[in-house]
Automatic annotation (TrEMBL):
The keyword Zinc does not apply. Pfam families: Glyco_transf_90. Belongs to the glycosyltransferase 90 family. Residues 184-432 form the Glycosyl transferase CAP10 domain. The keyword Transferase applies. One of its GO terms (molecular function) is transferase activity. This is Glycosyl transferase CAP10 domain-containing protein.
Amino acid sequence: MRRFRAQTAARCRQAWQRASQARCLMSGTFPKACVIALVVLGLLAMADLIPRMVIIATEARETSYWESWEEAYIDRESGGMGMWVREHATLTGRRWRSIILGRRSMKTFLHSECRDYLGEYAPLIRKELHHWEKTGVTNDLLDRSRDANVIISQDRVYLSHGAERARLIPTYHSLIQHMRLRVKLPDMVIPLNPGDSPLAPVRKEVNPPTPIFSFCKTPEYSDIMIPNTIEGDVFVRPAAKRAFRPKSRAGPKDQRMPKAVWRGSTGGFGGLEKGRAALLNLGMSRPDLIDSGVLDWDYERYGPDEGRLKEKMEFGHQVDKYKYLVWVPGNCASVRLALQLASDAAVLKIDSPELEWYYPLLKPYQHYIPMVANASWVSLEEAIGWAEAHQEEVAQIVENATAFATRYLSAKGRDCYFAQLLHEWHKLQRDKVRLGSNVEYTPEWSCC
């Protein structure tokens, strides 16, 4: 078999040389195997190209983005040519099915695409929605949060007036539109938090609490956590901002600098009190432990920066230079954790009550190295000391973190969680969806 392939390849090369000299067709020596191979490749290319063209022609802007996300998600796999071909064939088949048969119901999508996730996501979603299990969600309850709502009615997406200018609404809206391309969304109202801090505190006098979807919360709030895609595209970023590597460098032979790095902002309100100030001070007093700095500085509030204000360092460069990445909360959870977990640097995560949807699945010393911090102190020296003395364990932690990001923070992992969340949320709604006069239809990305 190898000999046959070698002979065929040699004949193809010879035929190509003759064709380049305009003698191939006249001499009639172009091998039949090459002709057959070219025809097969052409047919496969057309089979893949036609559904792309049809889909992009009908859903141009949003589809082109999400299709490229999934393509890159497949291309970054390290499982060899067989896995690459299998994943691409699956994606192509799904496109053809969408064109010929139309979009599937939410239930069918979950049981065909997300079967492996349902059991893991069920307890997370049950915990998010338990406040409304007994009472359900009525229109009167939804009226409490009418400022920034996405309304799905008869498979069309509507947005409340003015919400398109709110901070995070375009991000959430594009995610909902993306799901609408994949499945038939049932009628529902999705109240959204436009900011990056939770809005619905749990209070005894307000039972059930006001339902609202946010990307982050703390245990004292009832906000329903929704995936955030601002930094969630962990496998689809420019080279300077992407840090995924099929083969990790972590371990005893790691040649990167044995210190931590952190770049960020002052964290808005309260951010410097959650460990950021301690990291900045440690960067001044112990530059052998951490390269820390912020990209903004309020001189009226904090006085002279004294070297704390630094130039931006691309994320890819951080991972290439240092062994350890520090995660610290800001206004709420810092969304960069998804990128850090997908890299081949170990994550030093400060323990904090801030949560994103996937945090309950993370485990210390399995996916990250824990630290504690307050306004003036952070246990960075202890964390790096442990890591340097346990390089084999660190290599396993990095491997676990990358596998976690691949499974849960990829497009498929995130879509399956979001679809399951919307499916359960829809079952809680008791009343028929009302559009009202304060909404407008938003085809494709017309909101943003």
